[in-house]
Amino acid sequence: MSNDRIEKQIELKAPVSRVWSALTDYQQFGEWFRVKIHGPFVVGETSTGHMTYPGFEHVQWNSVIKAIEPERYFSYNWHPAAIESDIDYSGEEPTLVEFTLEAIETGTLLRVVESGFENIPADRRLEAFRMDEGGWESQLENIENYVTSTP
């Protein structure tokens, strides 16, 4: 197993259009991801907000939207495991998070890949990888629950 890249996938019993809106509508994204985002996702712009997950409300959400290809691909850069409010992570190279959607017989195959951990400073690289590895497991469960229970 590589410590430079996280790859996860889940089969969702929801149409691609439903999963797409849950991923790219900033308010819906915020509901399942547990983040309060200040405005819509726009390619090339920074998305800001703060986490709403209990115990992590102090964590700021900052990501740069890289691509939005309707009902197929959505990506952004961010600083993984940037949870210490007294540390400036802006000097670090961010990772790239990519969501790919594919229609399947039972609904949607959603893949998430986070890459670029090799560029995170060595003193926090393994912890950032560990936190996001587990985080994506939880987030895929969150989006599954969201798209199957919310119209």
**Uncertain runs:** none
Please tell me the overall pLDDT: 95
Shape type? globular
Quaternary state of the chains: single chain
Number of domain modules: 1
In which order are the strands of the major sheet placed? 1-7-6-5-4-3-2
CATH superfamily: START domain
Strand content: 25-35%
Radius of gyration: 15 Å
The CATH class is Alpha Beta
- SS field, number of helical segments: 3
Largest sheet: 7 strands, antiparallel
Roughly how many Å apart are the termini? 37 Å
Helix percentage: 25-40%
CATH topology: Alpha-D-Glucose-1,6-Bisphosphate, Chain A, domain 4
Strands, total number: 7
Structural class: alpha+beta
Give me the strand/helix succession.
EHHEEEEEEH
CATH architecture: 2-Layer Sandwich
What does this structure look like?
The protein is of the alpha+beta class. It has one domain (5-149): 2-Layer Sandwich (Alpha-D-Glucose-1,6-Bisphosphate, Chain A, domain 4), CATH 3.30.530. 30% of the residues lie in helices and 34% in strands. It has 3 helices and 7 strands; from the N terminus they run βααββββββα. It has helices at residues 16-24, 26-33, 122-149, and strands at 5-12, 35-37, 46-51, 60-69, 73-78, 95-104, 107-115. A 7-stranded antiparallel sheet has the order 1-7-6-5-4-3-2. A hairpin with an 8-residue loop joins strand 3 and strand 4. Helix 1 packs across helix 2. The model has no long low-confidence stretch (mean pLDDT 95).
